[in-house]
Amino acid sequence: MKKIFYCLFLIVLPTLNVLGQKDLNSREPLQLEVKDAAPISVKELWKGIEGSYQFVISKESYQIVHSKSLYDLIMSSRKKDEDIRMTIDEYTVLFLPAENTLSSSSFVELEPVIYSK
Questions:
Q1: Under 8 Å CB-to-CB from 24, ≥6 apart: which residues?
Q2: What is the spatial distance between Cα 3 and Cα 22, in angstroms, rounded to a whole number?
Q3: Which of 47, 54, 38 is nearest to 101 (CA)?
Q4: What is the mean pLDDT, run by run of 10 residues, along the chain of 117 residues?
């Protein structure tokens, strides 16, 4: 009797284990839900850093596109103690004051775009 029970146990246990497993490749991606939060538009992102950057453009009729990737570049490039000047394209240089400069009481917000000759 014990042998029969033991044999059934050895047959049934692996079967239950296989049935209970899920295919890891077919799992749904994890989705996080943030309550009471609306998605932030690119325009709102740029509004949040207004005055803390400046595009210096050398061509009078040229305009820079305020994209999410350019916003991300600004956020990742700023240094704590060093001002940054970065060439964006053939007509545009980005100026980023250091974090310490921005937090200074004497800091005056920058115009977002200036044209130089």
A1: none
A2: 31
A3: 54
A4: 55 54 51 60 91 95 92 94 95 96 95 91
DSSP the chain: -HHHHHHHHHHHHHHHHHHH---GGGPPPP----TT-PPPPHHHHHHHTTTS-EEEESSTT------HHHHHHHHHH--SS--EEEEEETTEEEEE--HHHHTSTT--PPPSEEE--
- Give yes or no for a contact between 109 and 52, defined as CB atoms under 8 angstroms apart: yes
* Contact (Cβ atoms closer than 8 angstroms) between residue 116 and residue 56: yes
Write down the domain spans for the chain: 42-115
Buried b (16+ CB within 10 A) or exposed e, 28-58: eeeeeeeeeeeeeeeeeebeeeeebbbbebe
Tell me if the pTM is above 0.70.
Answer: no
Sequence-ordered list of residues with C-beta below 8 angstroms from that of 93, at least 6 positions apart, any chain: 55, 56, 58, 85, 86, 87
CB of 105 closer than 8 Å to CB of 46: no
